[in-house]
């Protein structure tokens, strides 16, 4: 099972609109060309699909994703409008990946850059995990760990301690992928008595400078995506960068 993560397209209604370091529509086209060449079985887009939060930007995302020959899903980021996303393509909580399951968590807080799950969602996650012991991959927008950039760490998942308490009780959770950070990231996080692999992903749009105290664009980095090959209860993962 080959899953590809893409993230943070930050599209505008205008295909020619520029971000700080390029044209998001062009970046998305190049990234998806490369993703299709990977022959994935499933693609997940982990939020911030839109920058201007318009219906037209989500219609453009659908246009870009249409050449994919495999199933795909998306989740909302802090720049997104879930109702507009739902009108174009379903927002789902879970995907059956045969030997694995994929859980998608909704972390945005309306009007805020940071994320939060909240007690109800955390209780639901605990219940959901208790129903199935298959190896589990969790996808979310906001990082549940510090990534080492002070300004970004301040706008990550605010109730991460409660989140890790839930995950720590469920050793079937093997991998967590997130967006939001616009940079590569990887760590093994101790949750209870087991380790969980936690991965960030380069953005489709602008890249952020790792380790920065304040917001800073990394103009030397390129858009990218993450490949995960899921094999039994094991996995291999790597990043690919795309020239634009």
3D structure, described in words:
- The chain has 244 residues and is of the alpha/beta class.
- 23% of the residues lie in helices and 25% in strands.
- The protein has a single domain (2-241), classed as Purple Acid Phosphatase, chain A, domain 2 (4-Layer Sandwich), CATH 3.60.21.10.
- The chain is built from six helices and eleven strands.
- A six-stranded mixed sheet has the order 4-5-6-7-9-8. Strands 3-2-1-10-11 form a five-stranded mixed sheet, with no helix packed on it.
- α4 runs parallel beside α6 (160-168).
- The longest helix has 14 residues, at 24-37.
- The chain is globular.
- The two termini are 28 Å apart.
- 40% of the residues are buried.
- InterPro entries: Calcineurin-like_PHP, CNP_phosphodiesterase-III, Metallo-depent_PP-like.
- This is Metallophosphoesterase.
- Keywords: Hydrolase, Iron, Metal-binding.
């Amino acid at each position: 099972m080959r899953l590809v993560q893409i993230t943070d397209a930050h599209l505008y209604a205008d295909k020619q609109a520029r971000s700080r370091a390029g044209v998001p529509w062009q970046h998305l086209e190049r990234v998806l060309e490369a993703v299709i060449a990977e022959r994935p079985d499933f693609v997940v887009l982990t939020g911030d699909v839109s920058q201007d939060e318009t219906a037209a930007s989500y219609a453009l995302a659908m246009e870009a994703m249409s050449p994919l020959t495999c199933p795909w899903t998306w989740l909302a980021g802090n720049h997104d409008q879930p109702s507009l996303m739902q009108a174009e393509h379903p927002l789902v909580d879970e995907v059956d990946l045969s030997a694995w399951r994929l859980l998608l968590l909704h972390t945005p807080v309306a009007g805020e850059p940071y994320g939060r799950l909240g007690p109800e969602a955390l209780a639901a996650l605990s219940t959901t995990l208790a129903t199935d012991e298959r190896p589990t991959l969790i996808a979310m927008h906001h990082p549940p760990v510090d990534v080492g950039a002070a300004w970004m760490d301040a706008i990550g998942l605010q109730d991460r301690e409660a989140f890790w308490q839930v995950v720590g009780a469920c050793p079937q959770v093997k991998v967590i992928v997130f967006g939001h950070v616009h940079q590569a990231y990887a760590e093994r996080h101790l949750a209870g008595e087991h380790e969980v692999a936690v991965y960030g992903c380069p953005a489709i749009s602008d890249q952020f400078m790792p380790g920065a105290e304040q917001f800073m664009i990394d103009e030397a980095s390129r858009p990218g995506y993450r490949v995960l090959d899921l094999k039994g209860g094991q996995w291999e993962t790597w990043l690919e960068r795309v020239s634009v």
